[in-house]
């Protein structure tokens, strides 16, 4: 099985995602270049928080000044949802 490592960023807007699915497919197909181009029915888009400056379950927290570097390190890292 071939694995594809990819990162795609998008901005959230007031425009319904359904109206932008083809645009997201075009971004995925041009930037990530999967072996088989994706179609709107092939993707599921959701927003999620990866890090915050709130206290976590272990009593730790990230400083806001460190967040850009932490976010940069997430590129090509798996995320468990």
Question: What report would you give on this structure?
Answer:
By secondary structure, this protein is mainly α. The protein folds into two domains: 13-45, no CATH class; 48-81, no CATH class. It is 22% helix and 0% strand. It has two helices and no strands. The protein has helices at residues 21-31, 67-73. The chain is elongated. The two termini are 22 Å apart. The mean pLDDT is 76.
Q: Please, how many domains?
A: 2
Radius of gyration over C-alpha positions, nearest whole angstrom: 16 Å
Order of helices and strands: HH
Unreliable sequence segments: none
* Distinct helical segment count: 2
Let me know the number of strands: 0
Beta content: under 5%
Distance between the termini: 22 Å
Give the mean pLDDT: 76
Helix content: 10-25%
Shape: elongated
Largest sheet: none
Alpha-beta classification: mainly alpha
Short description:
The protein has 81 residues and is mostly helical. The protein is built from two helices and no strands.
Write the layout of secondary structure elements.
Layout: H1 21-31, H2 67-73
Descriptive labels:
81 residues, mainly alpha, 2 domains
